[in-house]
Each structure stands twice: as structure tokens, then as C-alpha cells.
């Protein structure tokens, strides 16, 4: 329960002092209000960014004396030297629906901030009425004799109120809204980071599937030639029907991989279409024209672990959310303290419009109101405990986001380094099997070896070359993941002021019923 104790206001219709005395009283009241505002305080904890112990270097930099170079994250995808990828990313930034949603959240957060700021200022309302009536007698509202008791009454007035915010409830609300706006802006950056990474990853996957399809088609064609050669030898009586069956089966087995790869290629193209804000098959013509698997050459500079706190927008967003929840504790705590408001009104009444400005028709009053929470059944204290527990959750989420960011970088760096080593070995393996296949075929044509050796060599060569292509695509994917883990996203200017839905004819108009 709350009690409201208004201080005695100036009564309505009381004799008014001379203008200079009245203005002097108002000035003294203004000085008192200013003194009260200056004496106001804020309750609850003041936010400070928490500090965590972070390693000085990444695990693969241990023992190095040279200071690591800071990460080069601006437009990192352009270092892949693929114009098609660059165009797709720019298209996605402009058309992606998740990005548009994040922009709308920024507009919402900024509007919420303006709402909170508005609560710091006086609120003034105007009202006016005009009444025409009959009082059932021949006496008008002004006491004059009228025909049939008809009368006209005009009223106008202003009501004003101003909460002094002695303990900072409104100021904490403004603080929380400001942090919320910053969090929404970081959410947009995090969305862009994820978008750029997803576009690059799916593009790499599409190019990888295309390369593997082309390999399967070339290999199957070669194996069909081998099967035809074997069939010729069978007609000459040089080989058995088993060799022909094995050769035909190997070619069919290789061709059986193609439909699955084409399905995966189509899925990647469809994902790219949706990521760019278009129907799934829109980009099929552009992607199917072909292109190499992107091949990152330059090493990725990772900087130091502390860089992720500045570069990762999801980490920054978690920190701003923590700041917001801290401010909300103060707002909940302020509700347990007394509140003082200044209220006032001025009204005028007359039987004619011209009477509204006559001094004898004007009445006014003003004064402070004190509201003190006396008994609320523990609700206000519980609200503080709720806000405190929510702050703990955001603190732990912030700490977890830092650890996750560090883990992402470590994992991506290890994966990229190891995949490059793997690709080197696979290249050697493919080269060796290529030589083995060529020799096996030559010996088989001369009758110096069995067909089983040719069959085994061709099967091993296809497997090695396919694995090499998978590894090359994995290198590019790991390169994307590492730049994404370091915080590399879109850093260009973004227009967040234009809404996705632009309403028209929103002023007064006749409504139209929809069927």
C-alpha cells in the first residue's frame, strides 16, 4: 500500500497577487525545484565493465617473442579474390531479412530511449469543452433570464505534472534504454557477421560440390573407356567376362556419386538465394556458370585474445546487455523510496469565448505531491531481487560469450592449420595414384599386369582426388570460420532509419473495411 500526502496547494479562485508578486513567487518556487533536483541521487549499483583474466597469447603463439600483428578484418573476404563472392555478400547485406529485422530492433530501441527521456520532463495536457444545453427554467447559467433556460458554457484549461525523480528511477530507465540501444546496434553487427560468414561458407561449399561433380564426371568417362578397352580384350579372348563386369561396375559406382553431389549443390545455391533475400533458385544461373574453389593464400593475423572483446559484436552485445540489467536494478530499487511530483493546473470558464481570457474567469492551483510506499507485501523488495538475479544471468552470459569467442578462434585456427597440412599430404597422394594409374593402364594394355591392379589404381585415384577437393573446400571454410571468430563482418555504413513497411494515408481518413 502507498500513501499520497499532497502539500496544501494554492486554492482555485483565490485572490491573485499583483503580477510582480506572483512572478516572484513562481521564481522562488522554481529555485526550490532546482535545488531539490540538484540534491537528487540515484540508488542501485553503478555499472562498471567487469574485467576477466585472459591469456596473453593464443596457444599457437606461445614462446614467440614478437608482438602479434592485430587482425586485419576489414573486407577479409576480398582477399579470396573472387568477384562473385564479393557481389553476393554485398547483395546479402542489402536484402537479407535477418538484417532488416535487426535494423527494426534498433529503431525500436531508439524510440524506447526517447520515451524514457521524455519522462524526465514536465507533462502538460490541454482540455477544452463547449456545452449547449437547457436547465429547465428561464434562468441562464449566468443568472440572466433566457428563453426556455437555454445556456452556453465554454471551458478551457491546462494540467501539468512533473516527477522530480529524487532517487533516479527515471534516470536509471534512461540509462538502461541507452544501453539497450547500444545492444541493438551490436546485435545488427553480429547479424551481419553471421550473414557474411554464412554466405562465404555456402559459396565455398557450392564451388566444392561443382569441382567434385566435374571430377566424378571426368573419372567416370575415363573408367568407361577402360571398360570399353576391357570389352575389346574380351572379344579377343584376352580377358574374362569378370574383368568387363568389374570395369563396368566401377564406372557406374563413380557415376552414382553425381546425383548426391548435385543435390547438395542445389541446396547450397538455394541457401545463398535465401541469404540474399531472394527466392531460393534465383542465383542458380550465376553459380552454375562455374568457378574455382576459393583458395586463401595469405596467413590470418589473429592479434591477441583481448582483441575479441573489441572486435566480436556478440561479445559487445552481451556486455551492453549486462550494463542494461545493472541499470534496471537501480530503477527497481528507486521504487522503494519516496516520490515527489509537482502538479498544477489553470482553468477558465465563460458563457462566451471572449470570456475565457478575462481575469475574473481564470482559476489556478499548484503544489507538490509526496508519495511514500508504506506497505507493499514485499513486492518492491522482490522486484529488486528479480532484477539482481537477472543481472547475474547477463553477467554469466557475458563471461560465457568471451570464453566461447576464445574457443571459436582457437578451434578455427587449429582446424585451418591442420587442414592445410592434410591437403599437402592429399596432394602428394593424388599425384602418386595418378602415376600408378597411368602405369597400370599401360601395363594392362601390354598384357603385363592383371585388370585388378588397374581397377584398384583407378578407384584409389578417384578417392584421393575427391578427398583433395574436399580438403581444399575445408581450407576455405576454415578460413571463413577463423575470420568470423575474430569478429570480421560488414563494417560499412548501414541505413537503419528506413522501415520495411512504409504506411501511407495515416492521417485522419474514412476507414475501409477489409473483407
UniProtKB/TrEMBL annotation:
Whether Repeat counts among this entry's keywords is: no
Any idea which UniProt keywords this protein has? Answer: Lipoprotein, Membrane, Palmitate, Transmembrane, Transmembrane beta strand
Location in the cell reads:
Cell membrane
- What single Pfam family name could you report for this chain, choosing any that match? OEP
Instruction: Determine the domain of life of the protein's source.
Output: Bacteria
Topology with regard to the membrane?
Lipid-anchor
Q: Which InterPro entries match?
A: MdtP/NodT-like, OMP_efflux
Q: Does the keyword Transport apply?
A: no
PANTHER family linked: OUTER MEMBRANE CATION EFFLUX PROTEIN, OUTER MEMBRANE PROTEIN-RELATED
Query: Which family does the entry's similarity section mention?
Result: Belongs to the outer membrane factor (OMF) (TC 1.B.17) family.
Q: Which protein, by its recorded name, is this?
A: NodT family efflux transporter outer membrane factor (OMF) lipoprotein
Its lineage reads: Bacteria, Pseudomonadati, Pseudomonadota, Alphaproteobacteria, Hyphomicrobiales
Amino acid at each position: 500500500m502507498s500513501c499520497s500526502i499532497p502539500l496544501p496547494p494554492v486554492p482555485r479562485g483565490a485572490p491573485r497577487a499583483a503580477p510582480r508578486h506572483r512572478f516572484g513567487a513562481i521564481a522562488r518556487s522554481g529555485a526550490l525545484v532546482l535545488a531539490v533536483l540538484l540534491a537528487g541521487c540515484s540508488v542501485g549499483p553503478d555499472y562498471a565493465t567487469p574485467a576477466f583474466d585472459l591469456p596473453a597469447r593464443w596457444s599457437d603463439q606461445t614462446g614467440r617473442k614478437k608482438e602479434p600483428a592485430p587482425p586485419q578484418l576489414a573486407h577479409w573476404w576480398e582477399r579470396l579474390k573472387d568477384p562473385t563472392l564479393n557481389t553476393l555478400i554485398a547483395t546479402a547485406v542489402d536484402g537479407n531479412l535477418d538484417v532488416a529485422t535487426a535494423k527494426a530492433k534498433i529503431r525500436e530501441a531508439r524510440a524506447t530511449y526517447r520515451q524514457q527521456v521524455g519522462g524526465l520532463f514536465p507533462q502538460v495536457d490541454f482540455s477544452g469543452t463547449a456545452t449547449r444545453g437547457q436547465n429547465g427554467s428561464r434562468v441562464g447559467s449566468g443568472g440572466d433570464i433566457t428563453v426556455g433556460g437555454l445556456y452556453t458554457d465554454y471551458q478551457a484549461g491546462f494540467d501539468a505534472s512533473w516527477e522530480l525523480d529524487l532517487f533516479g528511477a527515471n534516470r536509471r530507465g534512461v540509462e538502461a534504454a541507452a544501453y539497450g540501444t547500444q545492444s541493438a546496434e551490436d546485435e545488427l553487427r553480429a547479424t551481419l557477421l553471421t550473414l557474411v560468414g554464412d554466405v562465404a561458407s555456402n559459396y565455398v561449399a557450392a564451388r566444392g560440390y561443382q569441382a567434385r561433380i566435374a571430377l566424378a564426371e571426368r573419372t567416370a568417362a575415363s573408367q568407361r573407356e577402360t571398360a570399353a578397352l576391357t570389352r575389346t580384350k574380351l572379344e579377343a579372348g584376352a580377358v574374362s567376362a569378370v574383368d568387363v563386369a568389374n570395369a563396368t561396375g566401377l564406372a557406374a559406382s563413380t557415376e552414382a556419386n553425381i546425383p548426391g553431389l548435385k543435390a547438395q549443390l542445389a541446396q547450397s545455391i538455394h541457401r545463398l538465394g535465401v541469404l540474399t533475400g531472394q527466392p531460393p533458385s534465383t542465383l542458380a544461373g550465376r553459380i552454375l556458370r562455374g568457378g574455382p574453389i576459393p583458395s586463401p593464400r595469405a596467413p590470418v593475423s589473429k592479434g591477441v585474445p583481448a582483441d575479441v572483446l573489441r572486435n566480436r559484436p556478440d561479445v559487445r552485445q552481451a556486455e551492453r546487455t549486462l550494463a542494461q540489467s545493472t541499470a534496471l536494478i537501480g530503477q527497481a530499487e528507486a521504487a522503494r523510496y519516496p516520490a515527489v511530483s509537482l502538479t498544477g493546473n489553470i482553468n477558465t470558464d465563460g458563457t462566451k469565448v471572449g470570456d475565457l481570457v478575462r481575469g475574473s474567469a481564470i482559476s489556478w492551483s499548484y503544489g507538490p505531491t509526496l508519495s511514500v510506499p508504506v506497505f507493499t507485501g514485499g513486492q518492491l523488495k522482490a522486484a529488486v531481487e528479480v532484477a539482481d538475479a537477472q543481472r547475474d544471468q547477463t553477467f554469466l552470459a557475458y563471461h560465457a560469450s568471451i570464453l566461447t569467442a576464445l574457443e571459436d578462434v582457437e578451434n578455427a585456427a587449429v582446424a585451418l592449420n591442420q587442414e592445410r597440412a592434410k591437403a599437402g599430404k592429399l596432394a602428394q597422394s593424388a599425384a602418386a595414384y595418378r602415376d600408378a594409374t597411368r602405369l597400370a593402364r599401360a601395363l594392362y594394355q601390354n598384357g603385363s599386369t592383371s585388370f585388378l591392379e588397374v581397377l584398384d589404381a583407378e578407384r584409389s585415384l578417384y578417392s584421393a582426388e575427391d578427398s583433395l577437393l574436399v580438403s581444399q573446400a575445408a581450407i576455405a571454410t576454415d578460413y571463413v570460420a577463423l575470420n568470423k571468430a575474430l569478429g570480421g563482418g560488414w563494417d560499412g555504413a548501414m541505413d537503419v532509419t528506413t522501415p520495411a513497411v512504409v504506411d501511407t494515408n495515416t492521417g485522419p481518413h474514412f476507414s475501409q473495411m477489409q473483407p
